[in-house]
Amino acid sequence: MGIISWLVLGLLAGIIAKVLLPGRDPGGLVGTTVIGIAGAFLGGWLSATFLDKPVNQDFYEPTMWISAIAGALVLLVGYRVLFGSSRR
């Protein structure tokens, strides 16, 4: 996958994570993209390390999308735990 594919995957994974965990978090589109891209890497690493299921490099692979969204969710929850929840 190229850099543009990673950016698109990260953006979409971040958006899906924000839809699943709504709230007012700072960062906007850039923050969502960063959380999504980092989540894609984290999800791939977690999948390969603990589940012994390495993620393929195909953009349309469902495993890649699931791991990217799961990683973005983990990062979003971690962000909210560390910096406070926005549901006040």
Keywords:
88 residues, mainly alpha, 72% helix, single chain, 3 helices
Description:
Helix 1 packs across helix 2 (28-50) and helix 2 crosses helix 3. The protein is mostly helical and 88 residues long. The model has no long low-confidence stretch (mean pLDDT 76). It contains three helices and no strands. The protein has helices at residues 3-20, 28-50, 62-83.
Short description:
The protein has helices at 3-20, 28-50, 62-83. With 88 residues, the protein is an all-alpha fold.
Order of helices and strands: HHH
Q: Stretches where pLDDT falls below 50 for ≥5 residues?
A: none
Helix content: over 70%
* Residue fraction in strands: under 5%
List the helices and strands and how they pair.
Layout: H1 3-20, H2 28-50, H3 62-83
